[in-house]
């Protein structure tokens, strides 16, 4: 099962099984109930409150950021977002429609050997000179009328044999492409979701830094003029203005990333997506310690893009063999010959006579069946078609090799990102813990004095030191939530690079297990 890490603490589904299952069940039930309601019809909701993190698990307790006026929160969790992505995403819908097109082409290829049936009537009229079979020219007027049916079948036997085989491979390729689109969509939604999480965490950090900056200004203003120059108080107010600006920037990032996620999920663009999970939650799908060579081998056997390209290579092989056999296998022509010109009706009631007289009606049946060996352009056209198919085979094979190289590179890149982000999370966590402690102690010590020899009184902590501590805290918040979001994104990139699509339930194992084979 996946591990969800909060800082250095790790919560697995094997530990505290009952309590964890209860919490997850409640979250999923809440998210499912919200999804069933149209986004536009939902009333603004109170932001989801996350319980205070236990001490020693995360650097600081997370307090959800306050909503601004006009915000319409839309609580949602990651499993629900992934489920909505598969149901509403346009890329997945387009890939599904391409399957329908390929299946229709396959069905049409399977019936190439069946004739087309014509049903209707034919009226023929002639006035003037005509030549009989003996060569004599004479004048006459005549007419005829026929009603009936007729078959028409013109096809190359090689087409009837090999086109269904090639079309079947194209259908297989389209199915693999659908799985690839599904995997890509899940990755895109997960990355966007973690972007919202990061922005939300940074906004909470910006609010905390702003509160501390306000406290620094309040305490700095109370200090005696002989202890603190006015410029230090002005510096504290400057930092407070910066913190207020950064708060607006952080809120803007939350709204922008929320709009992008709403676009991907096709939700109401005006809602503010509010993840139910806290922004310090880490999602581990693949262990960073997995050997990259083993991961590449897994990806090369499971990526649907490779399965799709392999199917296209098989389709070009079938069509190449089709062109090689075309001059050796006859084409079949079956046409009705009961009318003039021939090619439509063959069987039915026929009658006619001189001038406008239609008489002597009776049954008529005339069919023309031919077997024809075709040498296109004296055989030169056939050779050109063979060369064309051979070039298509080379192109599809080269595309397969290029896809293999891309898959291997994506695995290596995602693996490197996972390892780097995992190391950064630990450093960012300790940095944030120290920054919180430093800011708290600097602000608490602001105003405390110590007496030196004589009447010399000095501040223990000067305002500029407290300002620097607040600046470091703001940066530490950004580093911490950014590293966690990067870790989660890298995990999903690596999981997708192995050929998997994260399921809505999120119950994917952490480790180096073989991913699911493409359908």
Please write the string of helix (H) and strand (E) elements. EEHEHHEEHHEEHHEEEEHEEH
How far is the first residue's CA from the last residue's CA?
A: 23 Å
How many helices? The count is 9
What is the tally of beta strands? 13
Stretches with pLDDT under 50, minimum 5 residues: 1-57, 515-519
What structural class should be given to the helix and strand makeup?
A: alpha+beta
Mean pLDDT: 84
- Percent of residues in β-strands: 15-25%
Q: Largest sheet, if any?
A: 6 strands, antiparallel
**Overall body shape:** elongated
Oligomeric state of the chains present here: single chain
What integer value in Å does the Rg equal? Answer: 38 Å
| Helical residues, percent | 55-70%
Give the topology, please.
Elements: E1 3-6, E2 9-11, H1 17-36, E3 73-76, H2 78-88, H3 90-110, E4 116-131, E5 137-156, H4 157-222, H5 230-265, E6 272-275, E7 281-284, H6 292-302, H7 304-325, E8 331-336, E9 347-354, E10 359-365, E11 367-372, H8 380-445, E12 449-451, E13 457-459, H9 463-497
Parallel strand pairs: 3-6
Antiparallel strand pairs: 1-2, 1-7, 4-5, 5-8, 5-9, 8-11, 9-10, 12-13
